[in-house]
Amino acid sequence: MAPAPASEPGPVRGLFLLVGVLVGLLLAKVASHDAFGRADTHVDRWVAAHRTNDVNPAAHSATDAAETPTIAALAVLTIAGVALAWQRWREPMLVAVATGEVLIFLTIMLLLPRHG
């Protein structure tokens, strides 16, 4: 049985790209100034105005837990755990690819300091 010929992506790929860019522009330029965007800004300002010293350590810990190196380490543990539990590597490799991208990002950030 012969393999099916590869089909050309045609205009579908370009259409998805165009829709993605337009949705991004809509959210960034228009939605940030409507009622939803104003409500979101109001919540941020309210939380900042009502911040207390009791909550600051918890917020700092939560922020540290959500940083990129922590997420990369958890991803590596997830890869190993899933690979050992399922006894296969196909699914964990998806996580490994994403983790690799994060590690490349971290390496670049360490090598190229920001100015400004």
Provide the fold topology.
Elements: H1 11-30, H2 35-49, H3 56-65, H4 68-86, H5 90-111
Helix pairs in contact: 4-5
Descriptive terms for the model:
single chain; 116 residues; mainly alpha; 2 domains; 74% helix; 0% strand; extended
Structural features, described:
- By secondary structure, the protein is mostly helical.
- It is built from five helices and no strands.
- It has helices spanning 11-30, 35-49, 56-65, 68-86, 90-111.
- The radius of gyration is 22 Å and the shape is extended.
- 2% of the residues are buried.
- The mean pLDDT is 82.
Order of helices and strands: HHHHH
| Strand segment count | 0
Helix count from the secondary structure assignment? 5
Instruction: Look at the structure and give the mean pLDDT.
Output: 82
How would a textbook summarize the main sheet?
A: none
- Structural domain tally: 2
Q: Any idea what the radius of gyration is?
A: 22 Å
Outline type: extended
Structural class: mainly alpha
| Low-pLDDT regions | none
The amount of beta strand, in percent, is under 5%
Give the N-to-C terminal Cα separation.
Answer: 61 Å
Helix fraction by DSSP (H/I, runs of at least 4): over 70%
Quick synopsis:
This protein is 74% helix and 0% strand.
